[in-house]
## 1
Amino acid sequence: MPRLYHLGLSEREIAGAQIALLPGDPARVEKIARMAERGRFVASHREFCTWLGHIKDRPVVITSTGIGGPSTAIAVEELAQLGVRIFLRVGTTGALQHHINMGDVVITTGAVRLDGASAHYAPIEYPAVADYNLVWALVEAAQRLKIPYHVGVTCSSATFYPGQERSDSFSQYIIRDLRGTKSEWQRLGVLNYEMEAATLLTMCSTLGLRAGCVCGVVDTPTQEQITPESLQRAEIHAIQVAVQATEIFLDKQL
Ligand code: URA
């Protein structure tokens, strides 16, 4: 098989990896790979940076998806063509509920499909749900690591600013259809905003692939500003939980 266009990867280079860890940020790829064994750089093209590592002696590919559904869908499509079957997003997120604190992690069971890209895989009535065993492994990992965690529904927005009704946007204008949506998601118990889970979960379950999502909290309803400190703490917690969950997943042959 030739080198795939967007990821710049060939089948040989991912060494038979069946599991992928998927951060959005290319800079997070190396951080994850360094927490696995024998991490090494493989390829970098556009927003897609790939390293290969080993967990429990099994090859694991770590690839950045970039921000949002369209680039996430490309990464998953091409990794699946190379033989990957299990996908775990390792992201950052904004909390919607007041009981969630900076640095906590959110483990997604299902996602509100405001991403756009998932509609190219299934009609909007189709639910964006995570693989049960991956959710279980993520919960078990957070418990073992004593990292505060929350399990539930995530809202995946196609945009960071208007779709999440952020007050720090350029125009601060929100179109009518989106006005009031943040308080509605809060009222409906949605835990958090991010931008990739709905695409990942929908496309994986429709394609016969398995997917999960863990995100570290970088902003909250009372602190919208993302600081380097909040980002670092959230990132490290999400990575630790994802790597430990992968170990559990492989150990228990889930
Ligand atoms: N990612 C998002 O999409 N929203 C946030 O508030 C933080 C990270």
## 2
Amino acid sequence: MKISILTMFPQLFDSFLQGPVLQRAIRKESLQIEIIDIKDFAPGSYRHIDDSPFGGGAGMVMRCQPVLDALRYAQGTGEGIPQGGNAVSAAMTPAGRKFDQKTARSYAQLDHLILICGHYEGMDERIYSRVDEQISIGDYVLTGGEIAAMAVSDAVIRLLPGAIRDGSTSEESFENGLLEYPQYTQPAVYEGESVPEVLLSGHHEKIRKWRLRESLRKTLLMRPDLLDGREMTEEEAEILEELAKERK
Ligand code: ADE
């Protein structure tokens, strides 16, 4: 897939682009990534990207023309993208739909994902109506969409074929709608605290059961909202009943 990121601050992505998982995805030819500088689409020596809001008020608003010309450029640079391939453009904004693992998985299936980073007090509303989606990474306000675009890209890139070891994404938090079970490594005892016996037993079925139970326990404790409306297997339902009894 290709990811295009539109930003006024391309240098913020310098170290992000060096990340080992991202680089592996590029080497495995699962990923092409380009950072597009919105300033390159602003004419004149002022590189006039923002302006004061109509109606008055503090701060500056990003103008339609440079942002939408940059978007059209990104949509047109289809090198390596199959004609008619599926593409999504998403503006990063705290007002957007909350990004989650399900969205990451659906984005990872795209041929082209275009992320637009807003800055200052926001963007001209007419930009939002010309993109496919508005995405937020959480209920807080960042200075700009760059960190949000990195978070979204990171979550998507690690799901691409070859980006990380096969199998290591399938059992982690959220992939099955639960938080991940606790993990341990050497030493078996650290400052008097031991690794659960069962993990040293080599008994695969017991380990699987223990992991499921601990995954459910953690979810129940930390994120009970994830269990609402989630379809349970019979085994999961039984374990949850036991955990509920334990808590009484
Ligand atoms: N830009 C500023 N805050 C943001 C947020 N929470 N999510 C996405 N983009 C943003």
## 3
Amino acid sequence: MSTIRTESKEASVEPAPGTGRVHVVTFGCQMNKYDSQLVEGRFKRKGWTTTDELEQADVVLFNTCSVRDHAEERTMSWVGELKRLKKERPQLVVGVMGCMAQRMGEEIFARAGHVDLVAGTRQFAQLPTLVEEVRRRRAQGETKVRVAALSMEDRLALDRDDEPWDGGAHAYLTVMRGCDLNCTYCIVPTVRGRVLSYPIEHVVKEARHYVERGVKVLTLLGQTVNSFGEDLAAPGAGERQWSGRQGRPGLGDLLRELQEIDGLARIRLITLHPSYITDNFARALAECGKVERFLPLPAQSGSDEILRAMKRGYTTDLYRKRVEILRAHVPDIELGSDWIVGFPGETVEDHARSEAFLKEQGFAVNYIFKYDPRPGTKAHDGLVDDVPDEAKKERNQRLLALGEEVGLLRHGAHVGQLRRVLVEGVKEDGRLTGRTEHGLMTAFEGSESLIGGEVAVKIEGASGYGLGGSLAGSS
Ligand code: SAH
Ligand code: SF4
Ligand code: F3S
């Protein structure tokens, strides 16, 4: 069994500061964004600087995604672009890290000969040491240095107290790694390993660290974030008892703790799984006003037969019941969903059930993906990818259009209301952008000085994807 170790500060021998400039390119999901920040933080802590300019970097690291083939191909072509740069500057260190590195391992060296370093999904904290190893071996005259670190040995509870933070008002916070479910289409459990939740005290400490540095919005990340804590050891007699199984902490407990942090305005959650929706969690949601009333709760399909073949662990009926629990406590909750079209065996009727379910549940935000067989998954190895690409494309288009239509209805229902918008940035058209308490994207005119604050916005218009309005006051 794997254990969680807190990194010891004594163990990190500090090389001389100013050892170089690191440029990190991030593909994939929010967890990768968090991990990239974590990696940058590890380098900064050792005296390195980060740069946005690839051409100026001494080390270029790609943080990669394996979820669909397209993601991998795009990454490989980016990595390929560096071949020329490496020829001009042989001292450059090129590394591939994250999900694709974990899946392909040393095969990456064979596909891209100019890559020096491959590091898996639980090696992020070691990156500065691994880069130093490449450099040291080069300095010793080794001509073709290749360093691979792919062990899933965990090093999770990183002490980030002394890391500088210049990331603005929003920060991602990974509260658990890996996934214990086995959806048949999905590569994530293979590349990210089994679930490991961070100890609740550790998450709270990290959250405080960010808030002290000006963060107002925290997005808590986990593949099934509402299963947070299930893998932690139950507390002993005399230790604090939480509300989860045998006194373990659950996501509800974590939310209640974070709700108490002064200066933190918003808490966002990505991604929830229907199987772990409990009354306790829904109650915590109702109690904690800082948690956005928006939950990404992917259905994937509206056909029970396809859900079974996907091994999602629920039927449409069970999904409905879980949403009823949520709505009983938070009636105005908005939901988002991911959908896979063209899963093996999906008939026209199955697809029609997905459309009906999207409509019935009224998902405000929808992400649609064409099924892509991933080597190493059960669906790839055991099922025939029998839906022709043309049909996948058509179903994709249909669901996209329906998602927009339903999204418009949901967003439209907020028109005329006064909403609290946490301002997070500026859009290309110069308007400010942020999210309402229901997590809906909202654009409006205003001064950039409002970024990081919460303002009242009168909602005046809606599209299938967001809201527009005008400033009614700031708080
Ligand atoms: N843990 C999350 C999803 C992580 S992957 C959950 O369970 O909902 C993000 C999304 O990618 C999934 O929701 C799914 O819709 C999509 N996806 C994953 N594997 C896929 C595949 N092989 N083909 C197409 N889409 C896929
Ligand atoms: Fe993949 Fe399913 Fe785990 Fe989500 S819950 S990461 S889709 S295996
Ligand atoms: Fe991709 Fe890995 Fe995230 S496979 S979706 S980057 S967990």
